[in-house]
Structure formats: C-alpha cells, structure tokens
Amino acid sequence: MSRTNGRTEPEEIDVEHELPASDDVSEDTRPASQPAAQVDGELGKLRAERDSLVDRLARLQAEFENARKRAAREQQEFREYALTDALKSLLPVIDSFDRALQTSTEKSELYNGVELINRQLHDALAKLGLRAIPAQGEPFDPRFHEAIEMVDTNEAEDQHVIDELQRGYKLKDRLLRPAMVRVARNTK
Fold first, then answer.
1. Whole-model pTM?
2. I need a labelling partner for 32 at 20 to 30 A (CA). Which of 2, 111, 123, 134 fits?
3. Within the chain, which residues score under 70 in pLDDT?
4. Closest CA to 130 of 93, 160, 104
5. CA–CA separation, 26 vs 23, rounded Å?
6. Second-level CATH architecture of 84-185
7. pLDDT in the model for residue 34
8. Residue 152, Cβ neighbours under 10 Å: how many?
9. pLDDT tens for residues 167-178?
10. CA-wise closest residue to 81 among 73, 71, 93
11. How far is CA 136 from CA 41, 105, 157, in A?
12. On the CB side of 83, how many CA atoms lie within 13 Å of its CA?
C-alpha cells in the first residue's frame, strides 16, 4: 500500500506473476528460487486445507439447516399443544356439567339452559381439538383407559368396559386424561 497525502491507496498487482487458476503448476510459472518439490508440497497443503474447509462448510450448513428445521418443528408443536394446561384445568368443569345433567330427570327450563351451555362448551372445545375417548362397551385399552375395578360378570364380554366413571379426553392425537372405567371379567 502506498500513502499519498495521508490516504492509503492500494498498490497495483503484477498480474504476470500470479499463479494460474488451475491446480497444475508448470515449471516456467514457478519462481526460480523455489524447488519443484517445495512448491508441490505447499500446493498439496493448500489443497488439503481447501478440501477441509469446504467439508467443514458443508457440515456447518447441514447443521444449521437441521437446527432451523428442529426449531420450526418445536414451534409448531408448541402452538398445537399450548392449550394443554388450559384444557386440563377445564376438564373438572366439563365433568361437573355432565354429572349435573345426569342427576336431574326433570326437564325444566333450568335443565334445558344447563344442557345448552354444556353443548356449547363441548362444541367450542371440539373446535380446539379436544375429543372424548370412547369407553362404554369398548374393549379395554390401557393406553386410553384406566381400570379402577374388575367386575366378575357374564353380562358383558371379557376385558370390555362396562362402566365409565370419568370420561377421558385427547387433544388432537395426544392423551390429556385417560378414562376411569370398570372392566368386565368373565367367570365361567
């Protein structure tokens, strides 16, 4: 670099002495002071370093892409299941509505109002992805049912749910709460 009037200006590069773009170095382009073996050795080192850096760059790009995909997947899962805690806290309210409607046999205006509110609540939660787990009369499935009692009976098929004590729920494909059930055990 040369300095003129306090400013640094780039020097001109002598293009005639640059190495050719190809990896082959001919005898006439090599400086006379360096032996051929030394130049070949340095060239080999530079090629190895270049290959190492290209490989490292490719690996870093792959790691970055994997991290980006993983972050997007985790963010999507968070969005889909962010309601889990809120819905779990609403399950006792749903249970209370269901019990209130089961105990009253009288069809009054109050009963009809509570039934309407219960239906609206179930519809709103269904839109969010909440689904009841079928239990009554179904074969016992330990993934979705929690057996509270085994009942000796011949009135139902063996290992089938005969009574649902508490309804179970799923949020999309994830279990929120298993159904508490009584299971038939045939005695023959």
1. 0.58
2. 2
3. 1-34, 188
4. 93
5. 10
6. Roll (2.30)
7. 66
8. 8
9. 999 998 889 999
10. 73
11. 80, 21, 12
12. 17
What are the residue ranges spanned by the domains of the chain? 35-81, 84-185
What radius of gyration, in Å, describes the C-alpha atoms of the chain? 38
CA distance 18 to 25: 11
pLDDT of res. 85:
85
Query: What would the 3-class secondary structure string for the chain be?
Result: CEEECCEEECCCCCHHHCCCCCCCCCHHHCCCCCCHHHHHHHHHHHHHHHHHHHHHHHHHHHHHHHHHHHHHHHHHHHHHHCCHHHHHHHHHHHHHHHHHHHHCCCCCHHHHHHHHHHHHHHHHHHHCCEEEECCCCCECCCCCEEEEEEEECCCCCCCEEEEEEECEEEECCEEEECEEEEEEECCC
